[in-house]
Amino acid sequence: MVNLFCPITGLLVSTQDGWREQKLGDHFTANFYIIGDSILYSGPSGTGDLKGTRAALRLSQEVAREAADGAGPYVQIEDYAGIRKATVEARKHFMEQMMSRQRLKALIFCNLSPMMQFLVKVGQRFNTSDKTVRVARDYKEAVGMAREICQAQNLETGPFVFGQQTALLDESSSLRPSQLVSDPQWDVVTDTYTNETHVIDRAIAYSVVSGFLDEAEVPMIDKTRPRLRDRLTDHENLDYIVVDVSALKGGGPKVRRKYMQSLKEWHNRFPLRMYIFLGVNAYMKTVARLANITMPFKIKTARDMNHAFALIREDKRSQKHRTPPRKSEDPMKKYQEQLLALIGGIDWEQPGFDGSLDMEDESHPFYEVFQAVKLIKDEMDDLFKTRQQMQEQLAQSEKKYRELFEKGSDFLCTHDLDGTLLDTNIAFKKGYGWDGDLPPGLNLRNLIPERYRPGFHDYLERIKRRGRDKGTMAVTTASGREFVLEYHNVLVKNDNGNPLFVQGSARDITERINAEREKKKLQEQLKHKHKMEAIATLTGGIAHDYNNLLSIIMGNLALAEDSVAPGSDLADFLKEVEKASLKIRDLTHELMALARGGAPVKEAESLAELLRDSTAAVSAQGGTAITQSIPDDLWSVPHDPYKMGSVFRNVITNAMEAMPDGGNITIEAENLWLEEDHTDPGLLLKPGDYVHICIKDQGMGILKEHLDKIYDPYFSTKPMGVQKGMGLGLATAYAIVQKHGGHMAVESTQGVGTTVHIYLPAKPAQREIQPPEDAKRVPRSPIPGEAWSTPKVLVMDDEEMLRNLAQRMLTRLGYEAEAVEDGKAAIETYKARMDSGRPFNAVILDLTVKGRMGGEQAIQELVKIDPEVRAIVSSGYSDDPVMSDFEQYGFKAAMPKPYKMEGLKETLKQVLA
After folding, report:
1. Quick one: which of 387, 449, 748, 814 is 20 to 30 A from 372 by CA?
2. What's the confidence (pLDDT) of residue 588?
3. Looking at residue 720, what is its pLDDT?
4. Which of 2, 3, 10, 4 has the alpha carbon at shortest distance from 168?
């Protein structure tokens, strides 16, 4: 595999056969390269005429499609080192076309003639496009400008060949890409050692080594060198060897000597000029300096590839392959070589000397030096032993700490002073959804939801200022799930008090917070329930007495209407009073709906028709439209039509009043089955069949602080008055839905609208009371107007005025009426009539009698006396369970108070039919 790279930047250079040495005119040739990802290099030569320029522009457009992934912005370098001249038309056409290219961010000229420099600088003054135009002296300055522009524009520049920026190999002012040749036959790979070798520009052998070098691997390295040499021609040689040993973990003196001896033997066959080590420590630098004295070629150490290339350039400038004159024999040379051999043979990581030199010969010129080196080595051995013991203790301590760190159930981490994570334990990684190591450079800030990130800076400032910080922090997993951590982080400092990093521990408290929220929500619901019960107790008592009085008013009103001539002024006055009384009755029913213990009088029917009728009953305001989606196959729901209609009308009216400027109200109904494990914690319903009704408006919505109060009686944001603003609408609706065994929920967003959800259970079971088998059965008379004698009705009520009123109304309707004040009297009177052979055809029983027997207890005895008893229950508590399920208690009908004479007539007709 052969690669090219830029000798100045070290970036990969790509080209194709169709981009190089392309003859585009009679005297015009073009060369194109892509440097890295985002720099396009153009090196034309010859005379630039209009024809050649147009062809070059077309070719550069083709090359640009490969730059920056074919879609991103790029920078173009125009190197005019080979241009002799260019026509005015060619220059003008070139600039017009280049300035119109959308992806081009900057155009850089280099190696211009003085005239061309002047023309380009004049053009810069009149440049009106968004393109940057610059002039550089040579290629080196131009590519530097290009990289600065790329960095400022955040453009990708591509990977470095050597993992870093390299230096110039020659003094060429134009781009001459260097070759990087690799071959697996040049590599040595074992279980413990790896040596990968490349050839740069057929002159430099570049190797990267890692692992432990053993004596057995040196011959393997020797075998790769002839294979390297085979790729070169007779007049080429590998003058330089660069070896990166930064990942080499060890080798030992014997291995080093064997390796250096193999290099000497290779040098005897193919002379080397320089051997360069990269990534060496202080010890290896000393070894290299000592070896440089005895080796027949230069041995150098370099900081990085830049430094290595600089050393090679410097050597190239010096006299090539000149053998320095040999000095005359020095009698001390032998001793110097012994000294160097002694020092070079020391293994500083092992105790003692690895050499055979006699240390006790005091006549040796370097005896004192030997003794000093021995003393130093002995001291180093002691230090090494102590260090080894300390390292073992430290390793054990680190192992224990790591076990505690990794196995802890809490989230443990360390991060730097900017929040970049340095280390995390397994619990931390699992909590965030990572399977492997941390992504490099990951900042804790990026794990926080976007809406909380502005506060992360304050957290860093607090912990730097205080030295510690604790609290809660919302974070996001790799899959996007949010959870909450309770953290306690500490700033770690060095001995001088300078901050090093932050050490933190945290635990997931999401479940605890959710449980607390749910507990708070349930407490609020319980509080609301108790509040409603307290209101219901008060309201129910008042409404019951109020209903009795209203019954007297409406009953006498009906008698008065029946006594005046139709069409008279008095009849009209009475009609207006009746209308007001009906509104009072409706208000009383709303108050009764809040009363404790009530249940609606239910009929198992579909809600479809009731929804449509309720919608039609609410007159739409100007600009308001109502859209309905109500299926005909809606499940049957046991409900009180009057009360449920009141719910729908209240909610639709509220929706309409929320849109004074008009809008659309959507009413939808659907059959719904709730599973055992439905996930909505706010839907306090048992599993089963439900009808779900959704009423949605486009109003301004409900303020967040008002949402918790919308079901409170007498809470209203509307003006107070007769027609609106009493605050009973939603409170009554909520109570009615609950008494139907359902649930009501409200969602609202400011500026968007409000949605009311109503859930009602479908298909309930019913039961009936069976009379005793031995009960006495008595035939009944027909209703008034038929052939039999006048029908008789017994009325039981503890209010004297109501008893008198009922008697007058019944007499007016053609019945014979008798009234008693409690249940005990009703039983005695009813039994006496049966025994006399003149039984009552029907009996009307007041449900609740203060301090005495009421209708619920009386009917149980009446059924025993007469299984065919035609009993009607009547009560101001219209929501009492007996009123809603009267048949289960032995009644034939229910008649809520207040009732009109027409209602009394229809109820008796139904019961006696």
Report:
1. 387
2. 67
3. 46
4. 10
Task: Quote the CA–CA distance of 835 and 827 in Å, as a whole number.
Answer: 12
Question: For residue 423, with 0-12 CB atoms within 10 Å meaning exposed, 13-18 middle and 19 or more buried, which class applies?
Answer: middle
Q: How many whole angstroms separate alpha carbon 620 and alpha carbon 743?
A: 27
Residue 890 in contact with residue 860, Cβ under 8 Å?
yes
3-state SS string for 663-684: EEEEEEEEEEEECCCCCCCCCC
CB–CB of 421/415 below 8 Å?
Answer: yes
Interval 289-310 mean pLDDT: 83
CA gap 56, 45 in Å, rounded:
11
Q: What is the pLDDT of residue 597?
A: 44
Q: At what angle do helices 282-294 and 333-344 cross, to 10 degrees?
A: 150
Q: How far apart are CA 347 and CA 541, in angstroms?
A: 104
What the block records as the tokens of 207 is 């190797």
pLDDT reported for residue 700: 82
DSSP 8-class letter at 11: B
Give the three-state DSSP class for 135. strand
Mean per-residue pLDDT for 194-210? 87
CA angle centred on 890, ends 884 and 896, rounded to 5°? 40
Cα gap 773→777, rounded to integer Å? 10
Residues in the chain: 913
DSSP states along 340-355: HHHHHT--TTSSS---
Residue 429 amino acid letter:
K
Dist. CA 694–CA 703, nearest whole Å: 20
Cβ atoms within 10 Å of 108's Cβ, excluding its own: 24
Which candidate, 702, 743, 715, places its Cα nearest to that of 531? 715
The answer to whether residue 603 scores a pLDDT higher than 60 is: yes
CA dihedral 121, 122, 128, 129 (to 10 degrees): -40
In which element (H, E) is residue 180 found? Answer: strand 178-182
* Residue 550 to residue 584: CA distance in whole angstroms: 8
CB neighbour list of residue 568: distance below 8 Å, 6 or more residues apart: none
Q: What are the CA-CA distances from residue 621 to residues 512, 592, 662, 702 (Å)?
A: 49, 30, 7, 20
Q: Are 464 and 499 in contact (CB under 8 A)?
A: yes
User: Is 99 or 439 the better-scoring residue by pLDDT?
Assistant: 99
* Dihedral, 633, 636, 641, 643 alpha carbons, nearest 10: -110
Residue 669: per-residue pLDDT? 93
Helix%, strand%, coil% for the chain, nearest 5: 40, 25, 35
SS3 state of residue 193? strand
d(CA 419, CA 413): 11
> Does residue 15 sit in helix, strand or coil?
coil
High-pLDDT (> 90) share of the chain, %: 19
CA-to-CA distance for 402 and 396, rounded, in angstroms?
10
Residue 245, SS3 per DSSP: strand
CA 392 to chain centre: 46
Which pLDDT belongs to residue 853? 92
